[in-house]
Amino acid sequence: MDTSYIIYGVGAILALISVASFTRKKKEKIIGMNKNLFGFLFLIAGVFFILWQANVLVDLGLPALSGTLTQYVGDQQVLAVAGTSVTSSIGKCTYQPTATYATIDKFGTTTVSGTSYYKPNGEKATTTAITNLNKDTQYTYWVSNSSYYVKPLTKTAGCGGNPFQTDAWSNSSVSLSGYDTVAHASTTDGASNCSMGANDLCNIEVSYQGTAKASGGPFGGVMVIEYNSTLSSVTATGSEILASNPHHLTYTTSATTHTSKQWGYASSMDDGTGNVKKVNIQVKNGASAVGAGSVWYVKFIDANYYVTNDGNIVLDTEKYQNDDTTRAGFNTHTLTMYWGA
């Protein structure tokens, strides 16, 4: 129920009573009070209720009784309802919000160019620059570059200027090595390759070292182990190995006698610091030896962003949402090893 009419009515009645008191005889009293004093008090009370209900007295610290009160805080227009605190914004700016865009090497000052994409929230990404924005709308900016990984930037437009500056990592090489943790020998040395009899185990520590101030995959990706089908199990653990693989990858083995297994790895594997990261691999043999000199691989396939057919900017190792097995990233970093027997 709208109580504003009642409060306005009370104010009007008080004002009418005050007018009526002024018309009484000169020396007549009302409730023991001088008629003029009585009239002034009721007139002030009536006017007070009317002004308060109209929110005229809000600036004096009194709460609004009902309705809405439009106020401005800088460029922001806000509504105060029924004496409560600010409850909503209607997105009013003095001037049209604008945007500027830049992509900079994360570890330097180099400006990275390429095909720029601009995506307003809920709409398709296009290559048409959006310089005039709408307040409270989300916008995403991304650059496709053949030599740099670029991270999309999403922000909500505010009043005034809105700078979009996103990071880029220069594509770089990676150093991979294997180490037999039981024999204490490098698996890249043919004389020290891991040998297993029937049902034996082999434990290999793989070291991944990227390049400082660059990256061979700053957004993570998929680690693939390709191995002889006769092996009974292969497991991989490490702080950069994900509990589940968020990416899609179509992988074909190099030999019909091989099979493969995939794990997702985190962006921390190659974060641009050049620090060495470790993956622990345990392989269990089957009932018969794989044979001396039999090859197996550990591959790190990077994820990257791409634009889908429906105009979204997504991260994956291949262009899965476009029904396309083309790799989205730049690299497949491969460690090749051989079995001793």
Number of domains: 3
* Residue share in β-strands: 35-45%
CATH class category of the largest domain: Mainly Beta
Summed over residues and divided by their number, the pLDDT gives a mean of: 85
The total of beta strands comes to 22
Give the CATH architecture of the largest domain.
Answer: Sandwich
Number of distinct helices: 2
Structural class: mainly beta
The low-pLDDT segments are 68-89
CATH topology of the largest domain: Immunoglobulin-like
- Residue share in helix: 10-25%
How far is the first residue's CA from the last residue's CA? 88 Å
Please trace the helix and strand order, writing H or E for each element: HEEHEEEEEEEEEEEEEEEEEEEE
How would the global form be characterised? elongated
Query: Main β-sheet: number of strands, strand sense, barrel status?
Result: 5 strands, antiparallel
Overall description:
This protein has three domains: 4-54; 98-170, Immunoglobulin-like; 175-338, Immunoglobulin-like (Sandwich), CATH 2.60.40. The protein is 11% helix and 38% strand. It has two helices and 22 strands. The protein has helices at residues 4-22, 35-53; strands at residues 29-30, 33-34, 68-73, 76-81, 86-89, 98-105, 115-120, 138-144, 148-150, 153-156, 161-170, 175-180, 185-186, 201-209, 221-228, 233-237, 258-265, 276-284, 295-302, 304-307, 313-316, 332-338. The strands form seven sheets. Strands 13-12-14-18-16 form a five-stranded antiparallel beta sheet, with no helix packed on it. Strands 17-15-19-22 form a four-stranded antiparallel beta sheet, with no helix packed on it. A three-stranded antiparallel beta sheet has the order 3-4-5, with no helix packed on it. It starts with a helix and ends with a strand. Residues 68-89 have low confidence and may be disordered.
